[in-house]
Design goal:
The chain has about 400 residues and is an alpha+beta fold. Helix content is about 30%, strand content about 25%.
């Protein structure tokens, strides 16, 4: 694994406009950054990222099997009790999930195994740029001779998403899947628009609904669209913890509407997962020791650790401590539900940039890779997306 500096294409913004990639910059600062790329060997991809990702996802499913039936576990995750039946029912029905992203600490062969930092199992973004725009970047780089002939990419995301959406429609018994997000959030809306396109290619109808336009039919429990029509199945880029805290969250369990991601994903999209995984598989080579903040066993981490809220986004409210001193801190609105402590595994630094590896899971299979770079050791919403290649 290495970082390769390369001149950006002078016309890449025109390429982005043609491809519908409209959120490549935020507040005038670049989000998409092609002034460099990361190059991996095939062995690093297959041995160090793909296989561990498959194993970690399987371990997470084994935890979900246990968690949904155990009130003590659900309580430890700060999931409200009124949501437990909906979570259990969705797991017992085997409601299908669509995708997720494992965030890993990995610095290349010889730097130790990839370590799970968290699992974005419910509402991960960075999907379109991973599946489509970095692939277009690769094809254009090969066509222009900017990349070595034979360069490849760990990226079967688009094909797997289309196939998974087709299977999901069959499993849910519907050809209609509505897609919801906040319409005024460019990254969320771009992610959902891409998934709508994948659903259309899978043979489903895929209308968009603003989150705030979704209603609830009190007589039969259906969630409904603006016209009052029942929503058979709904993909929502809106976290389960927010839904469970909303007034209509109590109606989820009794509603015939099916959700993607399903309610059982709430037990995986929670930093408390990390403490439970370590308890299930202590010493696993791809896990870091992790404990709830109120667990005296956290002392085994010593003076170096990372404190994370159970519910958080984009590095908010994360505290990094090294040798008893604060190494980094991010402010934010999270933490009321509690925290975990996780062993410190600092992100590798390439040319002064801290690189986070995201390993995508579609269905139950690893499907692709993304990398984000930050100026500091905590990955925030200001981190830049950098493409990757597999060396020929």
């Amino acid at each position: 694994m290495r970082r390769v500096a390369i001149p950006e294409r002078p016309d890449w913004r025109e390429h982005a406009a043609r491809a519908g990639f409209h959120f490549h910059s935020f507040d005038g600062a670049p989000y998409w950054d092609e002034s460099a790329h990361y190059a991996f060997t095939l062995a690093e991809i297959e041995r160090d990222i793909e296989e561990p990702s498959r194993e970690l996802h399987a371990l997470c499913l084994a935890f979900a099997e246990r968690a949904v039936e155990d009130g003590a576990i659900l309580a430890s995750l700060a999931i409200p009790e009124h949501a437990w039946d909906a979570i259990r029912a969705s797991w017992r029905r085997r409601d299908p999930g669509l995708y997720g992203r494992l965030d890993l600490r990995y610095g290349g062969a010889g730097t130790g195994p990839a370590k799970l930092l968290e699992y974005n199992a419910d509402t991960p973004t960075a999907l379109y740029e991973s599946a489509v725009f970095q692939w277009l970047w690769l094809e254009d780089g090969l066509a222009r001779g900017r990349l070595p002939s034979g360069s490849d990419q760990f990226n079967s995301l688009h094909e797997r998403l289309v196939a998974r959406l087709a299977a999901l429609g069959t499993a849910l018994g519907t050809s209609h899947l509505a897609f919801a997000s906040f319409s005024d959030a460019p990254e969320d809306r771009g992610t959902v628009a891409y998934l709508q396109d994948c659903a259309l290619q899978a043979g489903l109808s895929a209308p968009f609904l603003p989150v705030e336009a979704i209603g609830l039919e009190s007589s039969d429990g259906w969630f409904v669209d603006q016209a009052g029509r029942p929503i058979e199945a709904l993909f929502k880029l809106y976290p389960w913890e927010w839904i469970f805290a909303d007034p209509f969250g109590r109606a989820i369990g009794a509603s015939p509407t099916r959700f993607v991601e399903p309610p059982w994903k709430a037990v995986l999209s929670n930093k408390g997962l990390l403490a439970h995984l370590w308890a299930m598989a202590p010493g696993h080579p791809n896990l870091l020791p992790a404990f709830f903040e109120n667990d005296p066993a956290k002392a085994m981490l010593g003076p170096s650790f990372v404190k994370k809220p159970l519910y958080a986004r984009e590095g908010a409210n994360v505290l990094m401590v090294r040798d008893g001193a604060v190494a980094a801190r991010e402010e934010g609105p999270y933490g009321a539900e509690g925290f975990i402590r996780q062993g410190l595994a600092a992100l590798p630094c390439f040319d002064g940039r801290h690189a986070l590896v995201g390993s995508w899971i579609v269905g139950d299979e690893p499907a692709g890779l993304c990398l984000r770079e930050g100026d500091g050791p905590i990955t925030t919403d200001r981190a830049r997306f950098v493409p990757h290649v597999i060396d020929p």
